[in-house]
Amino acid sequence: MATNYIGLEKFDSLISLVSYFKDNKTCKDFLVGQRWSDGDYICPYCGQHHCYRRADGNFRCPNCLKNFSVLVGTIFENTKISLVKWFMAMYLISSHKKGISSHQLARDLSVTQKTAWYILHKVRTLFGQGNDVELADNVECDEAYIGGQEKYKHASKKTEGTQGRSLKTKTPVFGMAQREGKIVAKKTSNVQGKTLCGIINQFVKAGSRIFTDEYIGYNTLVESEYTHSVVNHGAKQFVDGDSHTNTIEGFWSQLKRSIFGIYHFVSAKYLQRYVDEAVFRYNTCKQDESDRFKKMFLKSIGIVRYDDVINVA
Prior knowledge:
The chain is an alpha/beta fold.
């Protein structure tokens, strides 16, 4: 018997969300409908189809004889936080244009800041950029350096030689933006030409046109399988015909405003997650709140545990 399926597009505002999800049972029934809309309950442990539902609302596998909840295999597995609050948090995170801080989320959900931080980072694991993304045609490439705001430090605490591309107090992020398309951005250990060109080769289709600034690290692209166009920022040249890097620089501006304005500080350890979140927002900027919530919610039906939140590469 098919499970009652409710489309995620129904929830186009926070009011519509909280009006429908009044308790944990409603949330669990909704998850059942999303995971197994055809009524074929699949065991998350052995993959057996046609498991049966028990009287208490959980399921039992006829093959491995294990009992399981609809939460097994989702980001909500083993949670002690109300599912209503989880759903509200996911909607708030997906709808805020520049993100939401753990302190603000804690106030909105009436939870501790530590709990809100955990929810935020668990949801951010859903934003991870795949390695199968392919950019093509006209692609702008540039690096950004996050952290190291020396001008705000006391003179006795400032670090010398941190200007420009210095990595003494900053973490580099390399970004690629396909014009009228998607963005890919990755934290890197350095900005050497070999590193940057390796990332370009991984994500940009051969034969594409690459636009960069005059940084020497891109010089090897001249002899590669890409057409390379350069704008000389050092000489105050920012546009030369159709050659510019304004698209990717606009993304850097959004990322930095989000970090400095909302989060205030981001450690190098978790930086990639904040970058992934910014990329998700940019790549879905033309979608409305319900579409972004739907995309995030469908990705939530995967295994993400506490270790995945705390331990990052």
